[in-house]
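Quick bug: L-ascorbate metabolism protein UlaG, beta-lactamase superfamily output formatted oddly.
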Amino acid sequence: MNLSRPFAVLAFIAAIAGFVPAPARAESGEPGCRPEMASYRLPIQRVQLAKDEVRLTFVGHATFLIETPGGVKAATDYNDYVRPPVTPDIATMNKAHSTHNSRSPDPAIKQVLPGWSTSGQGAAKHDVTLGDVRVRNVPTNIRTYDGGTDYDGNSIFVFEIGDLCIAHLGHLHHPLEPGHLRALGRVDILLFPVDGSYTLDQEGMLEVLKAVQARVMIPMHFFGGGTLNRFLARTQELWPVELREQPVITLSKATLPAKPTMIVLPGH
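Here's what came back:
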C-alpha cells in the first residue's frame, strides 16, 4: 500500500483501529503511553528465517522484537508495560520514561543493556555478541523535567546481524552531531520516534533521517494517527511511504528498497 495523499494515513489508522487497543493513562510523563502488556495480537507461528534475513515486529510504543536467523531475539526499550509475547535473549532500555525501561526485567533474559550508566559515572558502554547478533550503543543526552540536561541518559542501540545494520534511536532529544554519525556507521534500517515533543521535534527528526540515510525508516512513538499523519505529510515529498497491514516485516540486504523508504507498521 503506497501513500498518495496525507488523508490516506488517517484511513490506514482507522482501518487498524480494531487491531490496537486504546492505551491506558501514563504516569511517566508521556500521554497515553502505557498500553496493557501483551495487548497486541502478534502472530505466534514463526517461519524459519533464511541465513540473510531479519524479522522485525512492532510491539508498540518504542518496543520492537528483532529476530535473527540463528534464533536470537532482542527487544528494544524493554519495559514493564509493553512487552513482546516471548522472552527476549537481549533487552535494551533507555532512561527517559518508565515505558522505556524495566524495574523488573525477566530473569531469563541473557543480556539486559541499560542505555545509561547505572553507576551514574559517564556513559553506558555496550558491545556484546550473542549468537549471530552484535549489539553496541551510541550515547546521547536527554532533557530533564526541570529543563536541564541528563548527559548520556539515552543510547542509540545498533544491532549488527549478518550484512544488516539496524539502529534504534530510543528517546532521542537532540540532533545528531558528526561524532554520533561516525559512531553509528552505515545504517540499513532506522527505528525512530516521531511524537515531536517528548523526543526531538519533527523538523529535527527529518534532519536526522536525512543525515543517516537509511534504506528503511520505520516510525515509532507516535501516540496516535494524528501525530503520525502530520509527520508523514512532511515526508511525502522526500521519500516514498509504504503502509503495511501487519506489524511484522522480514528484511534482508537483497530485499532492501533501492532508495530510502518510509515503512509504517500498525501500532502506536
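Actually, after a second look the formatting is fine. The first strand starts at residue 53 and ends at 60. Closing.
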